[in-house]
Amino acid sequence: MGSIYLRSLHSQFLFRKQLTFRPNTAIFYPRISFSFPFSPGINRRFNPYKPLVFAVSAAPTIEEEKTRMKLSAPGKVCLNICLDHQVKYGEHVVFLGSAKELGSWKKQVPMSWSERGWVCDFEFDGGQSAEFKFVIVGNDKTLVWETGNNRILKLPEGGSYVIVCHWNSTGEPVKLLPLGLEDYRDRVEGVGHKPTVDASEVGTSPFVGQWQGRAASFIQSNEHHDREVERKWDTTGLKGFALKLVEEDKNARNWWRKLEVVRELIHESLEIGELLEALICSAVYLKWVNTGQIPCFEDGGHHRPNKHAEISRDIFCELEKITCRKDTSPQELLVIRKIHPCLPSFKAEFTAPVPLTRIRDIAHRNDISHDLKQEIKHTIQNKLHRNAGPEDLVSTEAMLARITKNPGEYSEAFIEQFKIFHQELKDFFNAGSLTEQLESLRESLDERGVSALAAFLECKKSLDAAAESNSVLDLIKTMLSLSALRQVIVKGLESGLKNDASDAAIAMRQKWRLCEIGLEDYTFFLLSRLHNTHEAMGGTNWLADNLDTKKASSWNNPLRSLILGVHQLGLSGWKPGECAAIGSELTAWQEKGLLDKEGSEDGKRIWALRLKATLDRTRRLTEEYSDALLQIFPKKVQMLGKALGIPENSIRTYAEAEIRAGVIFQVSKLCTFLLKAVRTALGSQGWDVLVPGSVSGTLVQVETIVPGSLPSSLEGPVILMVNKAEGDEEVTTAGSNITGVILLQELPHLSHLGVRARQEKVVFVTCEDEEQVSDIQKHAGKYMRLEASSSGVNLSPSSNDRDAVSFKKNLSNNGSSAAKGVAVKVPAFNKGNSSLRLIPLAEADVLTSGAKAAACSRLASLAAASNTASFRVPAGVVIPFGSMDLALEENKSTKKFMTLLQKIETEGVENDALDKLCKQLQLLVSSLHLSDDIFDSIMSMFPDEARLIVRSSANVEDLAGMSAAGLYESIPNVSLSNPTVFSDAVSQVWASLFTRRAVLSRRAAGISQKDATMAVLVQEMLLPDLSFILHTLSPTEQDHNIVEAEIAPGLGETLASGTRGTPWRVLSGKFDRTVRTLAFANFSEEMAVSGADPADGEVHHLTVDYSKKPLTVDPKFRQQFSQHLGAIGLFLEQKFGCPQDVEGCLLGEDIYVVQTRPQPH
């Protein structure tokens, strides 16, 4: 991928961190222009002939912006420094210098990113001298210094100046260019944008503002063909639609042919089912065409703009049909929104046989000179009518700037006609201002729509007139009016494009679509202003202090801003269900306010915990959006950019600019702002401890926990820093020397991964605070000590000699390099004989049915005896050990099975040979069929329409030394009414004995593969409201008087897997019945089965709104349910004689226990 890197946002790509603490500045070129004065932090680079440019700083507050904008005080020098250089994706640039302002050669001073380069501004004492250099900080925190001598800066006694430097040109003179206040503001806020067309020569449309192609030049004869430059195409390594696009572009010299390339690409993709790739290629290609980076030339043909309009209409219709399809992915919708603004209009006046004729009349006026007539005729008129392209609007705006530069030089009638033509041309290119675009909708709106439009335009007008004096209420009022208008437009677009829609209706629909996108762009500005206003009120510490004094009203406006921002994401089509649920929750917590007490717990703490859960969910939403963009664009941009000859700078900054230019960027900033305040109020550092302890080792960053993720050459103990987890990994299968894990995402404590880590005695913590994560990453490759307990987490440098010797000694004493303990002893088992029978649950034992089924059998008998700890157990039967062997014999596959089993015993993990063997075994076993006798016996024990769950009960799970939690399969929602589906479910459970992970887990525990066998537990399928896992000994508190419970909505697989999110987490006193809430749930989805659904082994994933969940909003229910779980935990611990992991669920008013096993310790 060359210089573009696809990386986890938590690790090597630090964009998320940039959202909060790195003062990066992105340049944003909106498709629709906004006529408003900008607040501090928003670029005000605006005059009648300059391109409109936005720049939003992620870090500085309003007060900081005002401070840095001041003209230098007496004896002070204001200095803006720009490094005209770009770095690889994910890297950034810092200062190091001798002056204290430059870090005194010790502290890195970060610079801000822009499309032009990296910028920073300072205030120095006048008259001093300093030495400095620029340094590139790599994704792995390595430093690359400029070569050569230090740069020398000699400052005057006062004034404001700018310096432009170039990487590695340390010998270049350091020139101080003097600036006045307005110039200084322009330089600080606008640096980074260098339009090819000079600002004095162009108009104000954003279309021209983002132009990076050839500068406009005026000709007096048909010289277009002489101006074509030779382009080069490189198709090396290209395939699929990328290759097709580049090959087609070679022959597509002008704009209409390039539009035709996109039309064919999308059409073909629909035929072969590879839509997303074609959409990505089209979006990137059209953006480069519209910005002039891919130039358009005349090719000798003669097609008026109506040709372009007709192609645009075809593309638009296809995109609208895709948008309204139910199977269109969020990623496809996201990319489609990038294409729409690049298409020209196809209103009736542009599809007419001879469109845009006003310019012909202008070119033949008698009140202008012959030379000017010729320039207009050949530069604009003839070019537009033969081969129209984006460059024509650039030329037109340059001409308009020229003829209006000196008042009185040209007649008012001529200028008026040219301005009208300019407006018509802007309309053709869909380059009008937001107000102009919205006004064009008025005639198509109903009464409600007209009212919403008027309300928004009035708010916008007031906002523009008030300049920087807007109050937060004015901004929120404008946001509310924008949301109302945008919702009207989105609702109107929901009906889809009718097959018999007239051309006029389709053209109006395009206007609606562009206005909807334009309103999203304007939201970016409003949210930025709101964020700056909240910062100016006092920032995160002010909010936290107010919460301490129970003044929650100060949180209302920041929360309302975030609610509105998330709502806008939903209107854009990004996971609207999730956005609606988050908005509902935030609104509920805002309205609920602070209570002195919630049940027996502190009301302020409960309010903050509830809010934190939803804010974490919101942050996850923004990360998923950023992840999607990073998966969509960088690789394709790199490939296409190289092939089409795009400047390296544009390639490098494409994806980051897309993220930072969108509403998601502002939502992320607001979310991070509020999260920091909540954590401060709660005294949280962002750490969560799953397995406490103290270990040392080399800190190594990996993407996931899988065998082979560690270099084979790495010796000694290792602490893994892991970007993401699925939840069913086993730590030590990735390396026998792993002593600790720092996971950079939230994870249920009692997930399969958490339980296994505890059993493997691996210290395990998670970290969700971006600043903490950034600090951890600085220590990658170093020898560190990780200390985790209920009081907190500490990661510090350590000496490796003593720790390494201790580690080697422990391995030697343990004998097992993976399990860090003696090999697990597998209990004796009985595979029976050819007359195997089904075993009722009440008769199940370890010999015939495995530890899980035996425990369920005992649970069933204990349920009848339970009193205050009342619970129920679902009915069930067991298909015993030996049933799979009997099925192999009947299928005449025993010999093949034994051969494969012998091979996996010794096959190494270095290549994919083990994977292939495991897949062969699974394929063989999953093809087996349940015998008719066993099936008939099961039929006799359950009602005909009963929903069942088919669960594993191996002889190598739920043991004291090997829980194997989640390692083997369970298939929910099956029925005996479909014998094939039921038999397949049983064979899938058998086959799960031979997954690669299961094989490696047994190998690590010292268990021979031939000693593993599988029984199948068949039970009634419960459709629970809540599912839970209990630890009767709290793993983090290590308190024998406390039961720790984790609870999730719906089916329990959400808890056991690595689903991103947090469960409800409560501590319940075994004897004093006290309850302490540690966390509120924020899983985005719950797994559920409806009684009306077919029993086909499938489950639904439903979006959860926790403002409607009693466990979140009802303190009495939360306390009573938690106390009941505490009583069950104590009861089962006493009956089984040791701490237990207990799984169960709540169905109506009844609590069911479905499993218990010895708790790893």
UniProtKB/TrEMBL annotation:
Nucleotide-binding recorded as keyword: yes
Cofactor list: Mg(2+)
Subunit structure: Homodimer.
SUPFAM superfamilies for the chain: Glutathione synthetase ATP-binding domain-like, Starch-binding domain-like
PROSITE patterns noted in UniProt: CBM20 (PS51166)
Protein's name in the database: CBM20 domain-containing protein
One of the Pfam families matching this protein, by short name: PPDK_N
A molecular function (GO) term: metal ion binding
Domain CBM20 as annotated: residue spans: 69-169
Superkingdom of the source species: Eukaryota
Keywords from the UniProt entry: ATP-binding, Carbohydrate metabolism, Kinase, Magnesium, Metal-binding, Nucleotide-binding, Transferase
InterPro entries according to UniProt: ATP_grasp_subdomain_1, Carb-bd-like_fold, CBM20, GWD1_pHisD, Ig-like_fold, PPDK_AMP/ATP-bd
Family assignment from sequence similarity: Belongs to the PEP-utilizing enzyme family.
Record keyword Magnesium present: yes
